[in-house]
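Why show two proteins at once? Because comparison is the fastest way to build intuition. When a single record is shown, students tend to memorize it. When two are placed side by side, the eye starts asking what differs. So, the first record is below.
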Amino acid sequence: MSKVNVVSAEIVPRLRLQLVASESISHGEIIVQGCEEEVQDHRTWRTLQVDESRHLRNEFLNFVDHSCSPNALLDVDKLALLAIRDIAAGEPVTFFYPGSEVELSQTFECQCGSSECLRSINGGFYLSLEQMRWTRDKGYCTAFMQRQFERLLGD
């Protein structure tokens, strides 16, 4: 946990909190470790889907922003947020929300600034088949969502 901090960034007219690397994080390194006691049986806007009926709620994950070019991914078997590429000190930790959730409790318009931005963000089941393949092939989805996408894609 010493490699990340929850920091604030003023976004006019509101204050936003986000998880930011306080020092460099290497590809494959655990960023946030969850535990079984944090798993619940219902979805909220502050949980990550682990499987069909379980959702992880961890106080640090509350501050991980969405990006269409993320740097982290939830390992559902380890209940850990892992770096999927090197993350520089000062860089916000992000993950691809539709790659972690069948359905989001709240949809939103993405403003991540990525050249690959999907714009309107909802759960993975709302992606087109092409977007599901893209998410899977980029490695932006959890093992649970990868199985769901492969089932829907017929792969």
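Second record. Ask yourself what differs from the first in the token line.
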Amino acid sequence: MTQVSLGENEGIESALRRFKRKVSQAGIFPDMRKHRHFETPLEKRKRKAIAKHKQKNRSSRY
């Protein structure tokens, strides 16, 4: 759980900026997108196979 406490003379804009930075560093957005919809086991296997194939192609380039 990401929390940001306001300083004494801190504006809401800067606190919101700090909160967004902490959330992005914690990796909450990718996880949230990943769990947005239910994924069947077949879809999961396909997604992982595609990712594995992409990773293999990237590593063979260099």
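One difference worth noting in the second protein: The helical segments are 12-26, 28-34, 41-61.
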